[in-house]
Amino acid sequence: ESSPHLPAPKDVMIYSYNFRSLLRWSPVKVDRGSALYTVHFKTGAFNQWDEMNCTRITQTECSFPWSLKERRWTVVLRVRAELGQVTSDWVETDPFVAERNTTIGPPKVNSVTVSSDSLLISVTPPFGSEVGDFLQYHVSYWENATSTTKKETKMSNTLFKIRNLKESTLYCFRIRIELMTHSDLQLLGLQSVPECYRTTIS
Questions:
Q1: 65-71: long-range contacts at Cβ-Cβ below 8 A with a sequence spacing of 24 or more?
Q2: Is 42 within 8 Å of 51 (Cβ atoms)?
Q3: Cα separation, 102 vs 135, whole angstroms
Q4: Comparing C-alpha atoms, which of 184, 142, 179, 192 is closest to residue 162?
């Protein structure tokens, strides 16, 4: 005998990477047919549930709409399962603020120009910056032969030089972004994969 009560979605989580955010949950198992899902949102400023573009959908994830792109807003989402006329309980997320809770990925390394004593590196940040953002690139680099002694430097331009290198030597580097927002929040991004280049002979 199937119960008239539909279980609520589990593992309800907001995933956010480079300020692109989505809600995910585990599928609800039902005896016959397949459950549909509906997601609502509300913001801290406007405490009223509203529909997202995810009403009676089959998939178990829902991307944030463009209207929720404000990084500073506090957003709460809720999701429920539906089967015919039967609905589950709503499951609410914890309050989410993209500016605090997103994961920042590594910058993209566009090019590396090698000389005998330096590497000139060009990077692109992984998200569009907003007014009041201050981005710094944390660069750690090391001689491949002595990978234990890493040096650190901070740059604020997307084109920068690692100087005072030995000639004809293999150097590796990794870069991560630090984002300072206008509200003095600090977000440290993920490290890039190490890249290695040999300096030329002078």
A1: 68/21, 68/41, 68/43, 69/19, 70/98, 71/19, 71/97, 71/98, 71/99, 71/102, 71/130, 71/181
A2: no
A3: 15
A4: 142
**Closest C-alpha to 81, from 13, 41, 34, 15:** 34
Closest CA to 184 of 115, 134, 119, 141: 134
Question: Can you give the pLDDT of all 202 residues of the chain as single tens digits?
Answer: 334 589 999 999 999 999 999 999 999 999 888 999 999 999 988 889 999 999 999 999 999 988 888 899 999 999 999 999 999 999 999 999 999 999 999 999 999 999 999 999 999 999 998 888 899 999 999 998 776 789 999 999 999 999 999 999 999 999 999 999 877 789 999 999 999 999 999 8
How many Å is the Cα radius of gyration of the chain? 23
Residue with structure tokens 């030995």?
166
Q: In this structure, how many other beta carbons lie within 10 angstroms of the beta carbon of residue 111? A: 9
Closest CA to 173 of 83, 85, 109, 99: 109
CA–CA separation, 158 vs 135, rounded Å?
9
Q: How many residues belong to the chain?
A: 202
